[in-house]
Fold this protein.
Amino acid sequence: MHKRITRLATVGIAAAAVGVMLAGCTPASSGTTEDGKSKVVFWQQKFEDYQQDWFKAQVAEFNESQDEVEVELLVVPADTWDQKLKAAQAAGKAPDVKTTSYGNIKPMQASGQIADLSELMDADAFDDIAENIAPFVTVDDGVYGYPLLVEPSTVLFYRTDLLAAAGIDAPPTTWDELLDDARTLTTGDVYGMNIGQTAPDLGWSSWGLQYNVAGDFPLRGDWSEASADDPAYEDLAKFYQTLYTEKLMPQEATYPYADCSFFGEGKVAMSACGSWALGQLSANPDWAGVWENTAVAAFPSSDGDPTSPTSTLGGWTLTVDAKSKVQDESAEFVQWLLADDTDRLVDFFTATGFSKYPARVSVTEALAATPEAADDPFLATITEDIVPYAKAEPSYPWDVSLAFATSLEKAMRGGDIPAAMSEAQAAIEDVIKKQKLAGTGSD
Amino acid sequence: MTMSPQSTNRLATAASVALEPETTAPAPKRRRGVGRLSTHVMDNRTAYVMIAPMVVLLGIFVWWPLLYSFYLSTFEISFYEEPLFVGLQFYGYVLEDPDFWHSIGIGATYVLYTVPAIMIIAFLVASFIRTVGRKVAGLLKTTVYVPTVVSAVITSVVFVFMYRADGGLINWLIGFVGLGPFAFLSDPELALPAISVPGIWLAFGITTLIMLAGMYDIPQSYYEAAQLEGANFFQRTWFITIPLMKNVLLYLVVTATIAGMQQFELPLVMTQGGPTNSTMTPNLFIFNQFKDPTPYATSFSLTAALILFFVLGGISMLIFRLIRSDKAIDA
Amino acid sequence: MKASLGRRVATYALAALIVVSTTLPLAWMLISGFKGRSEVLRTPFQFFPDVWLWQNYAAILQDPAFLQSMALTFAGALLFTLLSLVVNSIAAYAFARLDFRGKRFWWVYCITPMFIPGMAILLTSYVVVSNLGMLNTLAVLIIPGAASAVQMFFIRQFYLNTPLAIEEAALIDGAGRWRIFWSIFLPQSQGVFVVVGVGSFLAYWNAYVWPILTIQDPGLQQIMQYIAGFRSERGNEWGLLMAGSTLAALPTILLVLIFQRYIVNGVRLAGMK
């Protein structure tokens, strides 16, 4: 009988041992590595392949270049980034360094999640950040993220061949023109236009247009009251509604806004897309026929004023976690990667196919001096016609943007516009109250 | 919902299999006593050793996290600053949030679309299998079980393609009767019914098998007698099959309802809750709330999940009441 | 009493209809895997490809990341199944056949987790596994879910129905409880173990959110992560995606076919007694 017990116990112990063994291969958490180096955990959100390649190569080079700090790079898919980050923070295992969008800098700073880099990095590193970008990462006197790149979130892509065939000689410059052109260009096989159509996409891709039509966002000033009932937004809703209900754009959200495949596949004649789509379009050999006939312009302004913003300037920074035990080492890595050698970044921006733009003055200059940049047909349009007028992303909580976009989507699909806007108004007021936003805004 | 491994649809379906015996065969008294072998001898030590692994694992990975969730829900959670004790404030916020109730409504509508369909299809298929020969019955039983094992993620991916307006299988099929094409997943009116179809497809097979087991338990003589009296299929179903399977049917309805209210992966992969939140089921709503980097979002999401637990717990308790299985245990 | 010809034809037709409509999505997935990039969604719709291409399946089978995640998921699922069977069956035996102090309390303790939605403990169980150093290991996928109220309940149900006489005889012979469990109960448990084992295997194989949260190391990626990741990154390569999905679903379908006898009977198990 005892033998039996022993045997069963053995099974149990074996199972437990397997568990321990499996648990045993945990990579050491942040702090130090086995050979005594400081270990910096770096989470990079997954972007285009060339970005992963660049980050990987840079991290390897940094680790080679000195023997004090070891950076461990982890690439995290975008669709579960937020949940993973939150879980890691809850467990006290947040990455020391991570990619952070401009829009998240202020909310993260407000809840004490990220470290002030101005105390950790050389002061002159910050002097090089372009003047219009510095405010994105600055709160009071602190700098909470070091910018890597900016990219306008709304650019008009159009097919020169299809426009010419339809007798349209220049891209539209007002919304009415855009709608007219879209009507002309819509044929049996091709929609005239494509633009974001689901609330999660509209939440951010319509920021520039919200600003364009009303001169500000639906939550303004010190955030003490919502302004979604600003009648100007009804024009915006009407614009989206016309595009959708007149079937001037795809009726199915097959691809998210950030993915410009509708245009690449030749299913639409014009498309709103972020500048990053230049990289996507040029890289796909199947789309070579489309790419030859692709041109870009600033997205039209509702009234035709080319200096009125239609795009926000999105983009990415690196931030250092406020609870990191290796803040100095983390900052050292960020400085080495983003604030030092301009060649390192020139390589990066060349690899993007000029679909993303530097945040540092010296990098912009170095990049402009390269022959590739001089040859790029679109660089001037974007850096001269779009970037200077683009607005910063709003820094209020995403709930506000999503509430507005949910109403926008309802209106777009044929809902009553004033009703949708007053719903948005009420929803934003609710967010202000519950998240205690009143008085915390500084836009 | 293949969430944490503790609670999954698959296991829930295993549960339905498990619970079936006691409900169908009205347990003879003798069986209740079987577990109580020589009552005067207690096997405390052996028993504790035997349940210890389970008790420890559940303690660490279920009970402790649950208590911890309740504790956290009384704070505005921050992982960086001192969390702010707010008592039951977030319970109030969740209960008065129209979006939360909207998502409960979506969950309930999903249940309405799926559960009756699952029950009726499963009942008809089971009735049919009962009448066919052994070989055909074997083939059918295996076939209907196959969808049960396919993951919700893969099912979602496949159905997204089948629903496409341009070149999707379903629009092609309904084209034969002169309908369509519909942009199923982009139309707020159609998206939820469209998501219900894979939901039904995933669940009807195991339901069929359980019903079939219940049907096999009904003595054949009842039917023979009814047939002699000249009762047709519908009369036999209405007066014999359904009354005798009341417990099984009730149990299936309740478990399917709970699983349906928790549906999460289908809308996550197929529509992300859209268009215009028309497929925003409770669990997806909670999962999305988890996104924002603010302390508010974390607390709200956690509290909403706990409130959902009470709602589901209420329904679950009802099942146990109904099947009275806990009475088989004597302390 | 032979059924008429018309009736038999109707029966077969109905059976065929059930089989076809049940398997249609899977058949379409399998066949789409043979289609070229732009052929999967083509207007007008076409069920079969013009040319059957093996490239998609070949490409997936040559992707080391796919093979690795299949192998790892398979190994993980086996370990998970084994561990669950051990933990749950001994507890089931104790609850079915033994009397002990506090039995009712422990019963409620062990059975209630069945009703706790994963979402309510998602964040906090993450904190627990993280504190235990289990993140990024197979252990985090295997151990936390191993104790399963549902499985234990099912096995116990089966043990409750085992006749008393043999056990009494063994007790009189002086056999201990472990020995009785080992030599009397385990040998009869084959059928019930297959049914709950298949359930565990599927739960592990098809898990999505938990692995996404707890596994970062691409070297430990699970199969559903691979499929979901594939979809978000290479969304345009539909033929490839369908081929990958088919191959990822294949092991579970094979499992059902191999064990079909047990599964179909398993459902009838106690009901027939």
The interface with chain A takes residues 53, 77-81, 93, 97, 164-166, 183, 185-186, 188, 272, 274-277, 287, 290-298 of chain B (CB under 8 Å).
